[in-house]
Write a structure and sequence with these properties.
Two copies of one chain form a homodimer. Chain A has eight helices and twelve strands. The first copy, chain A, has 211 residues and is α/β, with parallel strands linked by helices. Chain A has two domains: 65 residues, Winged helix-like DNA-binding domain superfamily/Winged helix DNA-binding domain (Arc Repressor Mutant, subunit A); 113 residues, NAD(P)-binding Rossmann-like Domain (Rossmann fold). In chain A, strands 8-5-4-9-10-11 form a six-stranded parallel beta sheet, sandwiched between helices. A three-stranded antiparallel beta sheet of chain A has the order 1-3-2. In chain A, helix 5 links the parallel strand 4 and strand 5. At the A-B interface, helix 1, helix 5, strand 10, strand 11 and helix 8 of A face helix 1, helix 5, strand 10, strand 11 and helix 8 of B. Chain A binds a DNA duplex (22 and 22 nucleotides) through helix 3 and strand 2.
DNA sequence: AGCTGTGAATGACTTCACAGCA
DNA sequence: TGCTGTGAAGTCATTCACAGCT
């Protein structure tokens, strides 16, 4: 389910506020979904709520982490140290969500050696070593579209099984390799599409890019 | 439909290659979807294919643009000139996809006045003026989570009807305002989730963040 | 009384399969 | 013969509604 990460995020906030318990309705409100859906989602991996009370925030967080495979941190590598790749590498919020960027590579000599957060941009030739050294299973493709398939091929070749692709291209990968695409222009176009439809009506329109 | 933008993107490439015509099967392959779905999607806004031949690339592109409301460029404003906001503002690929970033605002004095691409980061107080001057209908929220709701409120207050939110928060907006969320950690968590499931099996797993 | 867990109903989307036109 | 357009079937996700625990 693509909603579990949202619950996880919301619960992190609730835990930080010291909230001991939460009802499906409250959680639904905060996550922007329906209460019945929350209950159904959570009951998928065993039920941990108490009738008449709700769910224990900390307990639920533990279970969600287990379910999402966030019991330990996932090492990730970013291919491409342009504006977007740099922004991702510098983003500090990944750690508490279960991920750690262990390397950033690029082919541009001007970028190699540049520091980003606590890392240094490495040459793309080091990709294999970085992946092997850290046991990386998730790669992020943040290169121009023309280089994206190559980047994906290299990631797959050295054993990466999941790819987050920011390039506006459909990647061709072997069966068993997971790909998620984030195309910023597509997101804008979907908004524009609804904007166009919305001239004259006013229904509520809140959605999520899988998120 | 969330797939139209993908078709649009693929067709842009095909047109650049000088391809005069394309079959639903080819288009499906390139867009990473099923051929029947392509036909159904395209027949939604009237049928423009020729049986035995396929669709005219240029004609289809025109129709898609009309359908997506991309007949002219949409002016957008970016709130937040941090790493991500800057990366977005500097990204050159929006124009051909139908969007133009007409302003970037921030509250941090260190950032205000800094040049990004052909723009200069403005003070957040200028948001209203920028929106009014350019008739902005789409706003991008690229600020820390604690500031996201405020940013959204300001955008809505000056008439913006669609928001692309990169902050890991569920925004509360009035009915009739469209919101799309892109949470990078959520994308990674969904990949990790599949990764966890995939230990032992190997089904193909290619999906899209709404895109 | 309040809230969870879940079968049943609904609705949306996808795929199949094929009739029909070029 | 090749490929589109589309009804019908199938699948998956969401919502409803309520029984049952605390």
């Amino acid at each position: 389910m693509a909603r579990l990460p949202i619950y996880h995020r919301v619960l992190l906030e609730l835990e930080a506020e010291g909230r001991p318990t939460v009802s499906s309705e409250q959680l639904a409100e905060l996550a922007g979904v329906n209460a019945a859906m929350v209950r159904k989602d959570l009951s998928l991996f065993g039920s941990y709520g108490t009738r008449g009370v709700g769910y224990g925030v900390t307990q639920l967080l533990v279970d969600l982490r287990r379910e999402l495979g966030l019991t330990s941190s996932w090492p990730c590598v970013i291919v491409g140290a342009g504006n977007l790749g740099s922004a991702l590498a510098a983003f500090g919020g990944f750690r508490e969500r279960g991920f750690e960027v262990v390397g950033v590579v690029d082919v541009d000599p001007d970028r190699i050696g540049r520091p980003i957060a606590s890392l240094t941009v490495a040459h793309q030739n080091e990709l294999e070593r970085i992946v092997a050294d850290h046991g990386v299973l998730i790669g992020v493709v943040a290169v121009p579209p023309a280089a994206a398939q190559d980047a994906a091929n290299r990631l797959v070749a050295c054993g990466v099984r999941s790819i987050l692709n920011f390039a506006p291209t459909v990647l061709d990968v072997p069966d068993g390799v997971g790909v998620r695409n984030v195309d910023l222009a597509v997101e804008l176009q979907i908004l524009a599409f609804h904007e166009g439809r919305r001239s004259g009506t006013d229904e509520p329109v809140e959605e999520s890019a899988s998120a």
